Amino acid sequence: MKVISSPELDIFRAGCRDWLADNVPRGPLPMEGQALREFDLAWQRRQYEGGWAGVAWPKDYGGRGLSVLEQLVWLQEYARAGAPQSRSMFVALSHAGPTLIVQGSEAHKQRHLPPILRGEENWCQGFSEPGAGSDLASLKCRAVIDGDSLVVTGTKIWTTYGHLADWQELLVRTDPDLPRHKGISWVICDMKSPGIDIRPIKTMSGIAHFAQVFYDEVRIPLTNVVGGLNNGWRVAMTTLGFERGTGTVAHQIELASTVDELIGIARTSGAIDDGAVASDLATLKAEVMALRSLTAMSVSRGMHEAVPGAEGNIVALYFGELTRRVHAAAIDLLGPAALERRGGHDWAMRYFESYKWAIGGGTSEIRRNTIGERVLGLPKGPVAR
Amino acid sequence: MIVDFQLSEEQQLIEDSISGLLAERLPVERLRETGSHFGAAEHRLLPAFAELGLFGLAVPEAQGGIGLGIAEEALAAKALGRHLASPSLLAQMVAPHLAEDNEERATLIAGASSAAFANRLAPTGVQLFDAGSATRIVLLDDGARLIATPASAESVDGLDEAVAMARGDDDYPAGSRNMIADRISLLFAAYLAGIAQATLEMAVAYAGTREQFGQPIGAFQAIKHQCADMAVRAAAAEAQVLQAAITFGAGGDDRAEAAAARLLATDAALANAKANIQIHGGMGFTAECDAHLFLKRAHLIAALGSSKRAEQARLLGSEAA
Fold first, then answer.
1. Residue A108 lies in domain
2. A293 to chain B, minimum CA–CA distance in Å?
3. Does pLDDT of B321 surpass 50?
4. Does residue A383 form part of some domain?
5. Which is deepest, A126, A211, A320, B126, by most CB within 10 Å?
C-alpha cells in the first residue's frame, strides 16, 4: 500500500493537463442524432491526432501501449478538464475494442482497432432482447450457417446509439440444441447490412438514445465470429468485465463534482444550516469519496490480475445506486425551482438520466445476485439454476 | 493521486503476525466468558503485542518506533476490530504519538505503561473505557490529548458489557481539533471496518449452511441481497479507510478523508451488525450467539471522541474555525 508517484508519471499528467486545456471543446454539445455522432467522432479524431487515443491499447493498433496507471491518470485529467463523455464512441472504446484486443483474431484487430482510435467508426451493443434482459442467456436471436455466412433473424433492444453506429457487437444463438450458455456466438455486425431495421426508442428523459434493432435474414460473414463459434457467452463475459471495472471513472468524477455543486447551492441558499440537509449532503460527499476509493482499489487489483473479476459488480452497484440518490437529492434541494425545465442538460434531465445506471448493464438486483453467488459464494437460488 | 492497495511484503508480514496473535489468543468466542471481559486478556498480552511492534508502528525510528506509517496502523486497527479487541489496545497505539517525551513514549511502546480512552463529557466529567490497569489516559473530545488517570472514578454498567466503564467528575477544558485527532478518527474507522468485515463473514457462513424450506437460506434473494449489501458496505468502508490512510500526509485533505472514512465505517459496522443479527434469526437475538457483541462494540466505538455531527461538518468544510 503506497502512493504511486514518479517523475515520469508527473510529466505524463502535466502533458494530459496541457493538451486538454487547449483542446477540450467548449459550449453546449449536440444532444441527438447525426450531429451527436459527428461531434463524438470528431472529438475522438482530435484526441488521436494529439496522441491521446488508446493510452493503454497496444501500439500495433494505434494505441500508446502504456500501462493502466497512465490510463487512469488520463481518465482523471479528462474528467477534471470537463471533457465530453465518449457517448456514441463508448461501446467501441470501452467494450468492443477491449474485447477484440483480448479475443479477436489478428484480422479483426487490424480491421477495427485503428479506425476506432482514429474516430472513423463507432459501435453499439446488441445483447438484450425483449424476452432476454436480466436473463441474458435465454436470448433467441437466431443465426443459421449458410455457406460462409451466418443468416441472422430476430431482434435486439436497449441498443444505445444503435441508430448512429457503424458496427455492433452482436450476440446470436448459433446452436439451439446446445445448453443455453453454450450455443451463443459473439459476432461483428455491420449496421448497414441489408435486412436491418432500426427504430429509436424515446426514454423518460425525452431523448432517443436507445433503439430496437430488427434483423430479417441479415447475412454476416462467418469470419466475423469472434472467439470461436458457440463460444460467445465467454467472450461476452469478458466484455461485461470491462464494464464492471473502470468504465465509469469519468462518470464517477462527474458525480463527485455534482455533489460539490449541490453543497455550493445549499450554502448559497442557506439550506445547509438545516441539520438534516447538512447530514444528507455530508453522507453523499462521503459516499462519492468512497466510490473513488473503491474504483482506485479495483484499478489497483487490475494491475495484478489480467481479467476483472466479479468484484467489479460491487463498484457498479455502489455507483448505480449512489447516482440515483445524488440526483434525487438535487431535485429535493432545489424544490419548486426544479419543476421548471430550462432546456438542455438541466437538473431534471440529469435526474431522469440517473435512473439508467441502476438498470443498464445489469440491474442492481442482478448485481446483488452476482455478488452473493460469485463474490461471497452463496448457493444459487432455485430460479437462477 | 494514484494509490496502490497491494500489500508490500513488510505490510503482509505485519498483518499476518498481528492477525495470527489475535486469532490464537483473542478469538471473539473468548467474550462469552466474563473472565475475558474488560480487556483483561489484552492487558496480559501487552508484551506480546509490543514484541510485534504494534505500539510503535508509525512512530519514527529516532523516537524508538518502527518508522512505518498510518497505513500500517490502519491495517492493525482493522484486525483489532475483527477480533473485538479492547479499545485500550487502540489507545496504546495512539498514546506514543501524544507522549510528552521519549522516555514516556518508550514505556508506552514497550507496553510497560498502559493507556486507555476516555470521553470528555460536557459540561463536566469523563467516561473511561477499560481503564482499570491504565496509567495514562487518551482524553477524547473534538481533539485528543494525553492525561494522567483521574483521581477517582466510579464504575458503571456499560452498553457493551465486555468493556469496563467508569465515570469521573474531573473537569477538563475543551480540546481543539489536531492532526492526532484526525488519525484517531481514522483508526476508529479501521476498527469499525473490521467489524463490518467480520459480521459480513459471519452472516455469509450462516446463510450458506442454515437450511429452511429444504435449502440454505442464502439461496433466497431476500437473504442473499442483504449479504450483497453488507459486502458493498464493508468494501466501501475498507476502501475509504485505506485510501485515507495511504494518502495521509501526501498533500490531500487528510481531515476530510478521515472524516469520510469514519462516517462510512460507522454506518457499515452498525448496519452490518444489525443485518448479521437479523440473518441469524432467533439465534441472533440470543446472548450465546456472538452477533450481539459486534453490534454493541460498534455503538461504543461510534460514540468515542468526535461526534457524527462534527465529522459531517469537517467533511462539508463548514466546521467552526
1. 7-122
2. 5
3. no
4. no
5. A126
